[in-house]
Amino acid sequence: MKKIALLTTLSLTLMTSLMAAPNMQKGEGAKKLAQMAGEKSPFYRAKKEAFPKDYFMINQNLPFLVGVSLFHPQSDKLNLSKEQLDQLIKMKNTTVPVAAKVAKEIKSMESELAKAMLEEHKEPKTQYELVEKISKLRTDLTKAHLQCIYDIQDVLSPEQFETLLKLATMKPKAQKMAQKSVAVTPDSKGKELFTQKCISCHTLGKTQDMSTVVAPALNGVMRHLKMSYSDKTEAVTFIKDYVVNPSEAKAICMPQKIKRFGLMPSQKGNVTPEELETIANWMFDNYPQQGFKGMGRGLKKN
Ligand code: HEC
Question: What angle do CA 224, 225, 227 make, to 5 degrees?
Fold first, then answer.
């Protein structure tokens, strides 16, 4: 009896962690931050700079909860309502850009400080003012951080907040495993499903025999799609909707494609919402493939 109970618990835990997913995918925002952060200092000791978090006065011993609530690989366990999700996204969008701007300023002041001390052999005293300035800005960031920690407790229920703290204290190794179960499994599953449900019309790459083509190839579809929807969440939402409910008004592909191929027939009944979720994520993550340039040149000539 005991054994069975244990096994059930085990497989349940496994299943829930397999089904776990982040509420939001890191997308353009993360890229923008990395761009803003620029190169890390040659004296930076950790492998990866956490920008802008590293520039808060308290950067390790307080959790960054808004990020955890949106991007933690198991953040869907919070069961956020649409309204809560919107509130959290709004918090992220109003605070992160400001923090990043201040962090960038701190970072450049700190490299100025390193230069003064290491290359110019300046007397320490001449740098005190700069140190004070850095200290003030770092303190400001932490004060704003406290406000975030305070505000998020108004958005979440006490139970959700408890779950959030559990996610925030998850060890990196467990996090990585959770991430793997989201990133790898649906990925191969996505390809498999696309092959079953969509490849009959959408080839992956270019087809040699143009006379048999009945729909734009996946590379082309995704290149156009990302021009209109660079954010992953939005792109996935669009695909999920379009596939079961296509219309000329919504289409992002060029009008001449629809003229040539006709509107895509709705795949309602051919693919479940869950399957579509997996397919759409896989499409976004893998297409267009690197090096794909499209046929822009050919089109212009015509
Ligand atoms: C019977 C053929 C057919 C099947 C099956 C099919 N598609 Fe399409 N699809 C088309 C055609 C034709 C177009 C181009 C016309 C259009 O945009 O509707 C298209 C366009 C698209 C677009 C671009 C929409 C736009 O805005 O123009 C997406 C995204 C897409 N398909 C996804 C899928 C996915 C995902 C599947 C599998 C679940 C799938 N399609 C299965 C024929 C098909």
Answer: 65
pTM assigned to the model: 0.50
- Half-sphere exposure for 195 (CA within 13 Å, toward CB): 6
What separation in Å is there between the alpha carbon of 264 and the centre of ligand 1? 5
Q: Where in the chain are the domains?
A: 24-170, 174-294
What pLDDT, on the 0 to 100 scale, is given for residue 298? Answer: 38
Over the stretch 227-253, which tens digit does the pLDDT of each residue have?
Answer: 999 999 999 999 999 999 999 999 988
CATH class of the 174-294 domain in this structure: mainly alpha
Pocket of ligand 1 from Cβ distances under 6 Å: 197-198, 200-202, 214-216, 221, 225, 239, 242-243, 246, 251-253, 257-258, 261-265, 267, 271, 279
